Backbone:
């Protein structure tokens, strides 16, 4: 091969290691009969809560609030907190939320265990620790195992909405977009409000559209009222 040809040859990234694991997992998730639905959420009450907590010296991210709300909603809607098994659907007794983290060369999903028993500030602190350890390659394999649902956020990239791929054997995953000021109607007045879009993808073998919609609606209500967060 001449030097000119070698210089222009495309680089081949082998599907092995982390990249290979992601490829296999995403292929499996794509094979499920998945359905997508989304809801716009007014984050005004959440931002007020964030400001209140910040005055006490604690940082509370929108993602941590979403994880907290999702964990509470999962406890009340166990059909979404489930795993597809060979020949059946396993409803998990505990709520373990995987949180997608961008790392060098791919994506890692460490698990926030018993997330429904922790406050939003606890989840925020734990998420920061897990993300830092994942990026440093310091988490043991167990840290990525046992998730019953996944939350993935692209809000920091300025994305308005997206439809993530299921993380099998889980039957649900939630995509979180950016928070941005939009015009909303309140009574007879149009006012600006901080809005985000939550996209729920679920496995239709395990859960039907109506119960999935009830789960997503409760999650949105928890955020809009900053209730129990």
Residues:
């Amino acid at each position: 091969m001449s030097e000119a040809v070698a210089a222009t040859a495309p680089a081949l990234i082998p599907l092995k290691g982390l990249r290979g694991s992601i490829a296999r997992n995403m292929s499996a998730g794509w094979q499920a009969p998945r359905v997508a639905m989304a809801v716009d959420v007014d984050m005004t009450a959440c931002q007020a809560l964030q400001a209140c907590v910040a005055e006490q010296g604690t940082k509370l991210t929108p993602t941590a609030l979403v994880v907290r709300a999702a964990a509470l909603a999962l406890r009340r809607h166990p059909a979404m907190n489930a795993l597809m098994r060979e020949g059946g659907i396993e409803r998990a007794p505990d709520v373990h939320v995987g949180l997608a983290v961008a790392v060098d060369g791919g994506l890692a999903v460490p698990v926030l265990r018993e997330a429904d028993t922790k406050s939003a500030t606890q989840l925020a602190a734990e998420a920061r620790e897990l993300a830092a350890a994942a990026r440093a390659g310091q988490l043991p394999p167990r840290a990525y195992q046992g998730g019953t649902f996944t939350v993935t956020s692209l809000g920091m990239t300025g994305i308005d909405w997206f439809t993530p791929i299921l993380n099998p054997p889980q039957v649900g995953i939630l995509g979180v977009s950016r928070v941005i000021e939009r015009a909303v109607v309140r009574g007879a007045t149009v006012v600006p409000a901080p809005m985000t879009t939550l996209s729920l993808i679920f496995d239709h073998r395990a859960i039907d559209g109506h119960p999935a919609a009830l789960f997503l609606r409760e999650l949105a209500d928890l955020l809009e009222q900053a209730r129990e967060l």
